[in-house]
Amino acid sequence: MTAWIEVLTAMTTDSTIPMRGTIEEIHEAGSPESFRQGFAYSGTPPVLIAPEDSCRVWRYGKKTRVERLDGSPIFISDGVRAWDFTGSVDRPRVGPPGRVIYLGPSQFLSQQRSTAEWTGNEFAQPISTVETVEFAGRNCWTVQLAPPDGKPYPLRIWVDVESGFILGDRIDEAGVGSQFVEVTVGEPIDDGVFVWDGPAYTTEEYQEQLEEDYRARQREQARWFTENVASTPVIVRAPLDFTPGDVHINKVGDGSFETNNRRTLLGRRRRSEDGWLPKWGVTHFVWSTAEWDWAAGAMDVELDDVAVVELQHALHPDETVERLRRIGRPDRRS
Hints:
CATH architecture of the largest domain: Clam
Largest sheet: 11 strands, antiparallel
Number of domains: 2
Strand order of the largest sheet: 7-6-5-4-3-1-13-12-11-10-9
């Protein structure tokens, strides 16, 4: 009978045996997907890369390549650098493997768990004897691992005897898992498989690009608001500036929207028989014009009747206002 320490040693020792294969996810109809492995970190949040339902994997020591079935890359690491292609296949994010992390249901089939992870309680301690079986056409050890607090079911793993690679894991009671459906162990792999030589963003460059994209969206939203709602700053007593920071335009394209900035909320919907009652957590006013149901509120001050009249004059100066009423905060009486 094989001892657990022998299996553990095989899984935590850097393998000098190359491996490649195809992973498929197992999701039985109606099964929950919340029993999978967790993840924690401290300091700057890492890049987390969730795998596809099916993917191809190459592994050699600390080197890894994961790609979609169509050949487009998802994650590449030469052991020193790691590239994340989930944002762009033409220009990935790059950083050290400790900050660019492949995470998800098949993570332990794609990369090696550290020795420290096996000393914890996240599917790390055996609760059954080790058996030797055939799995994915390979001679494997299999054992059940105890679930951590908050997760009800154990995880069974299959470990390749020759290489120490995990070739499958499954939570039988939940009907979820990952497994290699085809695998080749021991054939040489060109080192070029584990390197990206094209352009890449550093973490800082990528963050700058996200911020610029956000600013561009804000400019476009502000332009839409100016053209479709109010062409001048929308400021009323207090003073309260209703000029939007973000404009959430109704995808139907009927002119409905909701806006917010650090202090105010404003929106409209096509007029309906019952009017519009947005679920805002602040005191706000609602009213109707011939075409629209409107709503406006403020975060840290409460609008009064005079301020609402000023706002209505700024938004639709020549239109008749109907059904005006004040809606109190849900946690206090109006």
